[in-house]
Specification:
The chain has one domain: Rieske Iron-sulfur Protein. 0% of the residues lie in helices and 47% in strands. Strand 5 and strand 6 form a beta hairpin. The protein starts with a strand and ends with a strand. It comes from Nonomuraea phyllanthi.
């Protein structure tokens, strides 16, 4: 069973952008593409830096340090130097509220 936690409002995330939030003690990067929001673990699998400080383009989130890119839907790296995926989390939009669950479905 999934438990969802409200983390922000939809308007807090710029369209085509990313913000970092905490779900409990877990850092989460939220990426917005129109009315869709994706949640990824906010630590690059190649270098221990925040992905939420990177750039979003073409459905990927790019790490600012070495340029590793991660697919926002799957968390899989789309190019080096990262070779390991980052966790993705389930997102629900309830009105203007963005809710995230860390539980595996």
């Amino acid at each position: 069973m999934s438990s969802f936690e409200k983390v922000c409002s939809l308007e807090d995330i710029p369209d085509g952008g990313v913000i970092g939030v905490e779900v409990g003690e877990t850092p989460v990067a939220l990426v917005r593409r129109g009315n869709e929001v994706y949640a990824l673990h906010d630590v690059c699998s190649h270098a221990e830096v925040k992905l939420s400080e990177g750039e979003v383009y073409d459905g990927t989130l790019e790490c600012w340090l070495h340029g590793s890119c991660f697919d926002v839907r799957s968390g899989k790296p789309t190019g080096p130097p990262a070779t390991q995926p980052v966790n993705v989390y389930t997102v629900k939009i309830d009105g203007d509220d963005v809710l995230v669950s860390l539980s595996k479905e």
